[in-house]
UniProtKB/TrEMBL annotation:
SUPFAM superfamilies: Glycoside hydrolase/deacetylase. Residues 4-228 form the Glycoside hydrolase family 38 N-terminal domain. One of its GO terms (biological process) is mannose metabolic process. It comes from the Bacteria. Pfam families: Glyco_hydro_38N (PF01074). This is Glycoside hydrolase family 38 N-terminal domain-containing protein. One of its GO terms (molecular function) is alpha-mannosidase activity.
Length: 736
């Protein structure tokens, strides 16, 4: 408590400043969690009597565009960044510059894009603490020359370099740490070297310690600062795919968090303590550092593995806490536990603020019975869903799962609407609703087209009301045609949902050195790339509502790469699950899922990101990364006729353009880069040489939802993507 009192005293005296943002984040965190924590930071500042308006970030390479609005709404109007250009870069093609960042809501933040957060340490301003990292000169590695001598060489040279670039200001901010490490303690001895410098050179170059707000008070006096609007993509966002399992769990927790908000907007039906605990852990997992610095050089190290588990623990704790909260919300909405002999009545909820048509599912465990009939593979097709209010029997399809049976129907619910359904046992089995356009031979194979105008299901071609799908026997899904508009939804030569594996061979004894040399590429010039080769196609099930198609591939780097498609017969929806068994590899590697989709050159590609919508390569700051972005919900293409959406549930990274190693292009001032490019879901990588996990081995599942509909206001894209990702919620209830 004494230290807290001292801290409060010096804050109120203006001797210690407060950066009002919370953590150095990547872009995983959603808008609600971010705003909640930013408001808590502001509240704490108010309680200690601090009324500043500035934020400082270090290390990280960017922010979601909506981050600016979250800061602004928390009273933060000034942002200082210390970007670390290792595998990344600052925007606007230069550092040590000021600009105004216009947010999606039209606010403006004053931004100073500075240098590395320990550049002052390289000027030898910290006594007995030598450091050379960004600066490479005659004193790099020098441990004997007097620190003042090095300062006298480096500081004027640094300022001259700025003047050579027409630097317009008569001040330069220099960040430094108390010691030569991240997260360092304060060091009052810094004043020794500052006073020593000023005593010799203060009449020409004066050094002065400044708080963040004092510095911005000076910057705000500058006139005619340029204004830039757009997303500021984080080059370091890619680290999330080094832990695909915990990241998938995090995304699941995030959806449950959003569902909790949708079903309980006032927070009166759940458990406030669990919800708060989930909020904190969702924020902590989104902190940008992923593990110990030796994660690649010594992946067996105890600290490496301990911090890997600790990082995963944030996702686990978030999932557990928000599951407890959502369970309580659903209980207060009428959910009951399974019970022998209970009537199988279910409540189906649409958590979306818009009308949705989707699958409603009643899940029955394998030990249960319906109307006195035990459940089994032999009896499952006798099950039907009935509307409790109207007693109408609905088109039903039953699927066997690992622990029971899914009894499903496709229904339409209004915004936030609900419906009560009951599972009954019918005397006659469902005939399965198979193909009508194919002829079956005596051996039981349906592979002869009888009527091309009819819908049919086969391992080579599938026709539904909305889609025509062609399967190439070596590559997989080679054509996807929208039957309503009669146009292809695929472009290029890659097969939809095919896997692409890359490995860059290690060329040095130290596996980290190969990674270091990649720069801003995420693979090397000698990268070895393999595309999945189709080895088997199987119609797993077909019925009145959908057909399940399984495609197995041979793919280097994996022992299993399996694509399972659920293709709906009467709605324009395809669900995809990609199952992977990944092998261990120490060399830098990537795994992608191909998404060669689009609506043609006259459409626009949109990406749901944080709390806003972004048009990649259009709504971006000049000088920013255009090779990959992180998404919250997925992507959508839209023209004046249609909207094609892909909900991305588990793996939030999306790449744009060629996968080849290349000379890096970034967003230019003229915004001439194409918005339409080849698209891939980037599900795994281990290319970083530090902090991120080296071992990607294990079993994983990645899910996607594809849906096409009519064109609409682009502002609804994020809501609609979230709706198709979340689907309907169904739970048991007491019979009415």
């Amino acid at each position: 408590m004494a230290e807290q009192a001292q801290l409060k005293h010096f804050i109120q005296a203006g001797k210690i400043d407060v950066s009002l943002n919370y953590l150095n984040l990547n872009e995983l965190v959603d808008d609600h969690v971010l705003r909640t924590k930013e408001q808590e930071a502001r509240q704490w500042a108010n309680e200690v009597g601090f009324n500043g308006a500035s934020a400082l970030t270090a290390d990280i390479n960017g922010f979601s565009w909506s981050y600016g609005d979250a800061l602004y709404d928390a009273g933060i109007t000034r942002l200082y960044t210390c970007i670390h250009t290792h595998h990344g870069m600052y925007p606007l093609f230069k550092k040590q510059t000021a600009f105004k960042w216009q947010t999606p809501e039209g606010h403006q933040l004053l931004v100073w894009s500075g240098d590395h957060y320990m550049i002052g340490n390289e000027f030898q301003l910290v006594p007995d603490n030598r450091y050379s990292y960004i600066l490479h000169d005659r004193y790099s590695g020098d441990e004997t020359t007097d620190q003042m001598t090095i300062s006298e060489y480096r500081i004027p040279k640094y300022l001259q370099a700025l003047e050579d670039q027409d630097y317009p200001f008569d001040f330069v901010p220099i960040s430094l740490s108390g010691v030569r490490t991240d997260n360092s303690p304060a060091n009052p001895r810094i004043m020794e070297n500052i006073n020593r410098w000023n005593g010799k050179h203060g009449d020409q170059i004066e050094l002065k310690l400044s708080t963040l707000d004092e510095f911005f008070d000076v910057v705000e006096k500058e006139k005619d600062l340029p204004v830039y609007s757009g997303d500021w993509p984080d080059w370091w966002a890619d680290g999330v795919s080094s832990t695909p399992g915990p990241t998938k769990l995090y995304k699941s927790a995030q959806r449950k968090y959003q569902l909790s908000l949708a079903l309980d907007p006032k927070g009166t039906k759940g458990d406030p303590a669990s919800f708060k605990h989930a909020t904190q852990n969702l924020m902590m997992y989104a902190e940008h550092t992923w593990g110990y610095s030796a994660s690649v050089s010594n992946p067996w190290n105890s600290m490496v593995n301990a911090l890997d588990l600790r990082k995963a623990g944030y996702a686990i704790d978030a999932f557990s806490a928000i599951s407890e909260n959502l369970d309580q919300v659903l209980a207060n909405l009428g959910e009951v536990s399974p019970k022998p002999y209970r009537t199988k009545t279910f409540k189906v909820l649409n958590p979306s603020p818009t009308t949705q048509t989707a699958r409603a599912t009643a899940f029955l465990m394998s030990w249960e019975s319906v109307d006195g009939q035990p459940l089994s593979v032999d009896t499952m097709n006798h099950l039907r869903l009935v509307d409790v209010a109207t007693h109408q029997e609905l088109p039903t399809q039953v699927t066997r799962t690992s622990r029971g049976f899914e009894v499903s129907s496709v229904i339409t619910l209004p915004a936030n609407g609900s419906r009560h359904l009951q599972v009954i046992y019918a005397s006659e089995a469902n005939d399965g609703g198979g193909s009508t356009g194919l002829i079956t031979g005596a051996e039981g194979v349906s592979d002869l087209i009888a009527d091309e105008s009819q819908n049919f299901d086969s391992p080579f071609e599938i026709k539904t009301d909305n889609f025509e799908i062609h399967i190439d026997p070596t590559r997989g899904i080679s054509q996807l045609i929208d039957r309503q508009s009669h146009r292809s939804l695929l472009s290029g030569h890659e097969a939809l949902f095919n896997g692409i594996y890359e490995k860059t061979p290690i060329k040095h004894e130290n596996p980290g050195e190969t990674r270091k040399q990649l720069g801003r590429n995420r693979k090397g010039i000698g990268v070895e790339r393999d595309f999945g080769k189709l080895t088997n196609i199987e119609l797993v099930s077909e019925g009145a509502l959908y057909v399940d198609l399984q495609l197995d591939y041979s793919l280097v780097g994996t022992k299993l790469y399996r694509v399972t498609l659920r293709i709906y017969k009467h709605i324009s929806r395809i669900e995809c699950t990609v199952a992977v068994q990944k092998t261990t590899e120490w060399a830098p590697e990537n795994l992608y899922v191909s998404l060669p989709l689009g609506l043609g050159e006259h459409s626009t590609l949109y990406l749901s990101k944080g709390g806003c919508l972004v048009r990649p390569r259009i709504d971006q700051l000049p000088g920013s990364n255009v090779d990959y972005l992180m998404t919250q919900e997925g992507v959508a293409w839209q023209d004046d006729q249609s909207r094609l959406m892909v909900g991305i549930e588990d793996a939030p990274l999306v790449t744009f353009g060629s996968l080849d190693a290349h000379l890096i292009k970034v967003m230019d001032f003229d915004q001439k880069l194409p918005n339409q490019t080849p698209l891939h879901s980037w599900v795994m990588n281990n290319f970083w040489e530090t902090n991120f996990k080296a071992d990607l081995s294990g079993f994983y599942e990645f899910r996607y939802v594809l849906q096409i509909g009519q064109s609409a206001n682009p502002a609804t894209i994020t809501t609609d993507l979230r709706a198709i990702n979340n689907g309907f919620i169904s739970f048991r209830e007491n019979s009415h």
